[in-house]
Amino acid sequence: MDKPSKCPKCENTKFEVVNETPVNSNYELIFVRCTSCHSVVGTIDFYNIGSLIKKLADKLKIDLDK
Ligand SMILES: [Zn+2]
After folding, report:
1. Which residues have C-beta within 8 Å of that of residue 46, sequence separation ≥ 6?
2. Ligand 1 centroid from CA 9, angstroms
3. Which residues constitute the domain of residue 37?
4. The pLDDT value given to residue 64
5. What pLDDT sits at residue 15?
6. Does residue 47 sit within a domain?
């Protein structure tokens, strides 16, 4: 079994996502953070660009795998 992801600061293995708008940002970001000490371990753009591009490609009938 894979080892679970762990917080680099406190070694907790549980994470949560929160929407926040950083100072000087026009956009909300989704932060992945430790549930224990709230250290941020990753961010996801709010609109999930990867998913948007896929939808756009589908509408344009473009096969991204080719
Ligand atoms: Zn932590």
Report:
1. 19, 27, 28, 29, 30
2. 5
3. 15-59
4. 86
5. 96
6. yes
Number of domains into which the chain is organized: 1
> Does any domain span residue 3?
no
CA 10 to ligand 1 center in whole angstroms: 4
Examine residue 32 and state whether it is found in any structural domain, yes or no.
yes
Give every strand in the sheet of 15-20, ordered side by side. Answer: 15-20, 29-34, 40-45
Collect residues with CB below 5 Å from ion ligand 1.
7, 9-10, 12, 34, 36-37, 39
State in Å: Cα 65 to ligand 1 middle: 38
Q: Convert the pLDDT of each residue in 3-56 to its tens digit.
A: 899 999 999 999 999 999 889 988 888 899 999 999 999 988 777 778 888 899
Question: How far apart are the C-alpha atoms of 14 and 8, rounded to whole Å?
Answer: 12
CA of 29 relative to ligand 1 center, distance in Å: 20
Residue 8 lies in a domain: no
Answer whether 0.70 is exceeded by the pTM: no
